[in-house]
């Protein structure tokens, strides 16, 4: 009976280590995802900013002429 208990405790410890490892992997993937999404948002912001700057420049040119 004690051997069975020790085996189960070993299995529990192994599973706890595996859970810890999986949590670390999830955290790493979430961090990679957040950095990737920030870069994606920045590129879309640039695409939105270019026409706005062009419109403002065009308005300034029309006012000066």
From TrEMBL:
Residues crossing the lipid bilayer are 42-61
The name on file for this protein is Uncharacterized protein
Top-rank lineage group of the source organism: Bacteria
Where does the record place a coiled coil?
A: 5-32
- Asked if the record carries the keyword Coiled coil, the reply is yes
Q: Write out the entry's keywords from A to Z.
A: Coiled coil, Membrane, Transmembrane, Transmembrane helix
């Amino acid at each position: 009976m004690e051997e069975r208990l020790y085996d189960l405790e070993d299995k529990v410890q192994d599973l706890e280590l595996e859970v810890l490892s999986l949590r670390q992997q999830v955290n790493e993937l979430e961090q990679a995802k957040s950095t990737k999404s920030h870069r994606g948002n920045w590129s879309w912001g640039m695409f939105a900013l270019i026409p706005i700057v062009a419109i403002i420049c065009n308005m300034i040119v029309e006012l000066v002429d």
